[in-house]
Design goal:
Helices cover 34% and strands 18% of the residues. By secondary structure, the chain is of the alpha/beta class. It has two domains: 37-67 and 337-430, Aspartate Aminotransferase, domain 1; 72-334, Type I PLP-dependent aspartate aminotransferase-like (Major domain) (Aspartate Aminotransferase, domain 2). Helix 3 runs antiparallel to helix 10 and helix 4 packs parallel to helix 10 (319-334).
Length: 433
């Protein structure tokens, strides 16, 4: 058995040494992984380590810190709300930040998405969307419509129901196949042939399905795989033809990441249910939203409690998180976030292109692609993931490749110099022999 690497010396960061014996890290083989880097501060696009080094964050804390770290407007909103009321239960009581945020999200959401249900994480918001869709049909007298059509390459979260609508061959979730309920997986309709296959697939299964679920324009954790707006239009049109609901998971793509406030805008498509998280609070506090159309909501209205949506996380509508989210929306209204995303897209489109065709010590480059504030260098394979991640740290960058991709998803507010250092580090390191 391989010995577990020791954490940093006690004299440098005692809390890391003490806590490492007890914490269970995400996506980590604790037996062999090197210890995590101790962080003492963040600001803008910079992470300060306990040993004094600074790293430029190329992935915005799992794509959430869209305004950069420690934005004063969000910080001040959190401080004010913490002094007044951090939390109060939402069943039978109301707090101003949650009700204001619900109204604001309904105002900016596509079409008639107008009812907002809050939770604490993206995965849970997708499970809520699935429950809404299934109960929608139950309330409409079709209780057998409980299946979901989903796509190869998808990722919607790590909880049980969301794993079931993710890629069935996913190396992360494949080991739980016996635990998850079977869902209906198919290919995205990208061209004439796949559109015909998708139409036939939906025709075969529609009468048992509640909804189709899709990450619009970019499948994120499945490998940053892009598809065209026409694909999203095809899915919407097919749902309409067969009377299916459409759930769009905009947890990653929503709130500006692709250059529009929502990815669905680029296809002029409105979902029946949409999920948001990550950038919702600017990466400051955990919060997610499931937003339903008027038609979906109205299916839950009656004189009978049995038709009500019976779901209620303890921290739903948390006042502190909702205050942060309201401040985050303020910044989308008052600062040039979409223009910043377009500038990042222009930079990455040029700066990462030299990687195309490279074949070095870390592997052979298969593709280079950019959309919005997402830049991807796809490899055939990555030969030593741990060493590659450490190599980026040596260059002063926090870039965390996964699967077979090296990617950037920085804060929208990153300055030109730091962005150039990130893209330059990728070109330099991927080209090493």
């Amino acid at each position: 058995m391989t010995a577990r690497p020791d954490p940093l010396p006690v004299s440098l960061v005692p809390w890391l040494d003490d806590g490492y014996r007890h914490i269970w890290m995400p996506y980590t083989q604790m037996q062999t992984a090197p210890p995590p880097l101790a962080v003492t501060a963040t600001k803008g696009s910079r992470i300060t380590l306990a040993d004094g080094r600074q790293l430029i964050d190329g992935i915005a804390s799992w794509w959430s810190a869209c305004h950069g770290y420690n934005h004063p407007h969000i910080r001040d909103a959190i401080v004010r709300q913490a002094g007044e009321m951090p939390h109060v239960m939402l069943a039978g009581l109301a707090n101003e930040p949650a009700f204001t945020l619900a109204r604001r999200l309904a105002d900016i959401a596509p079409g008639d998405l107008e009812r907002v249900f809050f939770s604490e994480s993206g995965s849970v918001s997708v499970e809520i969307a699935m429950k809404m869709a299934a109960q929608y049909w139950r309330n409409n007298g079709q209780p057998g419509r409980t299946k979901f059509i989903c796509f190869d390459g998808a990722y919607h979260g790590d909880t049980i129901a969301t794993m079931a609508v993710g890629d069935p061959e996913d190396g992360i979730h494949g080991r739980f196949a016996g635990l998850m309920g079977g869902q209906l997986h198919t290919n995205l309709p990208r061209d004439d042939n796949s559109r015909k296959r998708f139409e036939a697939f939906v025709t075969e299964h529609a009468d048992q399905c509640a909804a189709v679920i899709l990450e619009p324009l970019v499948q994120g954790a499945g490998g940053m795989v892009f598809h065209a707006p026409e694909t999203l239009k095809t899915v919407r049109e097919t749902c309409d033809k067969h009377g299916l609901l459409l759930i769009l998971d905009e947890i990653m793509t929503g709130l500006g990441r692709l250059g529009t406030l929502f990815a669905s805008e680029q296809a002029d498509v409105q979902p029946d249910i949409m999920t948001l998280s990550k950038s919702l609070t600017g990466g400051s506090l955990p919060l997610a939203a499931t937003i339903a159309s008027a038609a979906v909501f109205e299916a839950f209205l009656s004189d009978e409690l049995d038709t009500a949506f019976m779901h209620g996380p303890t921290f739903t509508g948390n006042a502190l998180a909702c205050a942060a989210a309201n401040a985050s929306l303020d910044l989308f209204e008052t600062e040039p976030r979409l223009e910043q995303v377009n500038a990042i897209e222009a930079h990455l489109g040029t700066a990462l292109e030299p990687c195309r065709g490279m074949n070095g010590k870390w592997g052979k480059v298969r593709d280079v692609r950019v959309r919005g504030a997402i830049g991807v260098v796809e490899m055939d394979t990555i030969t030593d993931m741990t060493a590659l991640r450490a190599r980026f740290v040596e260059e002063g960058c926090w870039i965390r490749p996964f699967g077979n991709i090296v990617y950037l998803m920085p804060a929208f507010t990153i300055d030109e110099e730091d962005l150039a250092r990130l893209s330059g580090a990728i070109v330099k390191i991927i080209g090493e022999r």
